[in-house]
Write a structure and sequence with these properties.
2 strands; mainly alpha; two-stranded antiparallel ribbon
């Protein structure tokens, strides 16, 4: 009974292409972002990013094949890329300080989650316990991967926030699509570069070749991130419709312009 619904659903999804599943993941993330923002405001977006940062770091342990790559690609890119969308929404509606707080909350949550799971693995397993090895696979991090991931996350998210705000000031808060795409594409590249250089060259006992660094690790997932950025642009406009308290604002001012930032 426990898996009578879930197992067939997983079997059904495995008949779909990786690209189709990625689209479903993205749509699910978008619905969650807009729902949590409309229902809980800033707190909802903070919660989303905390959960997604942890989830993406688990998803990255699984690999699959995509049409654009001759080699298997680690998952987590689509999910993780939506955290930049959330940072942009926070910056757009509440400013840089609120967005930066969200980054630090996600950073702290990831460290806390990792620490708690390591402590949990300190318990000796009961006879026949199969969960210990599975949990160890998921939650015992490589120190260099953990350091590279956390460093890339904080630096790239702060880049996203500052670039988004800077472009907004330069354009006098017009062209929301421009600041969304410029900020996310540049910060995504920063994230890929920092993580790849730290994890696979500087901290790696056996550094990879320059060719692999550029074309497999830095550019390998950047196409997917660029596609997520493009698809995220309409979501930024929809975020105006999901602003908490919007019905009251419209009741007070029927002439309120939802497109003023466009």
């Amino acid at each position: 009974m426990d898996i009578s619904f879930i197992a067939p659903l997983i079997d059904l999804m495995q008949t779909l292409s990786a690209e189709s599943i990625s689209l479903l993941v993205f749509l699910g993330c978008v619905v969650a972002i807009l729902f949590l923002f409309r229902t809980f405001g800033v707190t909802g977006l903070y919660m989303y990013n905390v959960v997604v940062v942890i989830a993406a770091n688990i998803q990255v342990l699984k690999m699959t094949t995509f049409w654009f790559s001759p080699e298997p690609v680690a998952l987590g890119t689509v999910t993780f890329a939506t955290t930049y969308l959330v940072s942009d929404i926070l910056t757009e509606h509440y400013g840089k300080a609120v967005a930066r707080k969200g980054v630090w909350l996600s950073f702290a949550a990831h460290i806390l989650m990792t620490s708690l799971m390591i402590l949990t693995l300190g318990y000796s397993g009961a006879a026949g316990d199969k969960a210990h090895e599975a949990m160890a696979t998921l939650f015992v991090p490589s120190p260099r991967i953990l350091l590279a991931g956390l460093s890339a996350y904080v630096v790239s998210q702060f880049c996203d926030i500052y670039i988004f705000e800077w472009v907004g000031q330069m354009t006098q808060r017009r062209w929301l699509w421009l600041r969304t795409n410029v900020a996310t594409l540049l910060s995504g590249l920063v994230d890929n570069i920092i993580f790849s250089v730290l994890a696979w060259v500087i901290l790696n006992p056996k550094p990879i070749s320059f060719y692999s660094l550029i074309f497999t690790y830095i550019l390998g997932t950047y196409l997917a991130r660029g596609l997520v950025t493009f698809l995220s642009t309409p979501v930024m406009y929809l975020s105006y419709l999901c602003l908490p308290g919007l019905p009251k604002r419209l009741a007070r001012d029927p002439n309120f312009d939802l497109t003023k930032a466009a």
